[in-house]
Give the backbone structure.
Amino acid sequence: MPMIEMTCPEQSLSKSAQDKLMRELTDRLLHWEGAPVDNAVAQSISWAFVYEQPRSHFYVGGQPITEDHYRVKITVPDGVLDDERKAGLVADATELVGKYAGEGHNSYRTWVLIREIRDGSWGGDGQILRRRDIVKLVYTK
């Protein structure tokens, strides 16, 4: 049940670029989790959100930005990603943002934050879903 949340300045990406980025980022996240990318259930529980904020709401070093910056927060169940998988996911996410941000994008303007949710602290369908429940859901539907 991974979640992706990207915060970026308004109009920094076209709607088409956002759609493609979220599609590819979802697939890469499932890949690094070890989940089947082509599984309909795995896809259906992989949610992504794009939060566009007014450019005037972005600051770096206490100063208004002059170039686009992107924050990608990825939430996964604890223990799904080891250090190697995290590194691969961060590299892929950064590359994909750069691909859709366009020419001149500097990878230092993309931050990827991975948040792991402790087993027993993820809820859905009105109940606690443990990692084993999520795995069972993906592989039995």
User: Anything to note?
Assistant: The beta strands are 3-9, 47-53, 59-60, 63-64, 70-77, 110-117, 123-124, 127-128. The longest helix spans residues 15-33. The first strand starts at residue 3 and ends at 9.
